[in-house]
Amino acid sequence: MLFMKIICVLFFLINILSWILVNSSLKSFVDIPSLIIVFLPIYMAIAYRHGWKSLFSLKFHTDVWVKNGKEQDGLLKTIGHTALLTGALGMAAGLVLMFFNSTHPFSIAAQTNPAMKISLLTSTYALIVFLVIVLLYFVGREDQS
Amino acid sequence: MIIKSFSITFIILCFVLTILFNANLNSFLDIPSLWFVVVPILFLSFLGNKGSGSMRNPIKGRAISWFELIGYVSVFLGVIGSHMGMINLYENFGDKSSIGPAFATLILTSFYGILIFLFFFLMGQYKLKKVAIYFVIGQTVILINNMLTLSFGF
Q1: Complex ipTM, two decimals?
Q2: Which of A38, B17, B55, B146 is the S-S candidate for A125 at Cβ 3.0 to 4.6 Å?
Q3: Contact (CB<8Å) B83/A123
């Protein structure tokens, strides 16, 4: 059931967003370099594994993506695994950038050392993408007749 | 089923008694962490109950059951919540009054996540997958790292 999937994913995302808005500020959870580090490789991996035009020609049909009448179940796996790997790589890259910062080496506060933000936010984005993929893959499958 | 419910009650009683004897129960209740982990899990349990068939049986076409799915998602939510706590912690690192709530979020989200994972592990017929073990180990490493960082930071 597509409806159940969408409701579930929306509930999770809105829950996270409202939690951020209440307990912290949205400004500290948005970082352009980390967004690029996580989401550009995902797009490239989809393009590499499933073709350049696959993102525009795929249709979300009940519980799998369908392209030319064939199930594209591997797409979710591609997105999830790439997200986890880019999260780990971004975390390592952020730590390296942090420790080689010439002005404030070993400063872990995010105000003085913006690379700390990269190392934290890439893994957060990656985990959220992986959670969404897990929900899309599993939820709403059993009611289908 | 009787043995199962008895063991779960016993384990929860053990946790509560340990907390009561050694510390204050108030320090284990944190509203932001509860909100982050427990509310989505309640929603997922509602969805799982709504569907046809038992929650213990495998989902049609997938290799795991609803109980296992909820256990995995709780561990993921614990990891994401501890990351949220880390971001709050290092964002306002100079301000010492903000360290307490952020660190509470960091620790208690993973605590609740692993506790719910244990609960659903005992409820369902579990084939413990590698992914969940990796996430539990990763969470422990995250906690130890943060404690070391904080202790060297001051």
Answers
A1: 0.83
A2: A38
A3: yes
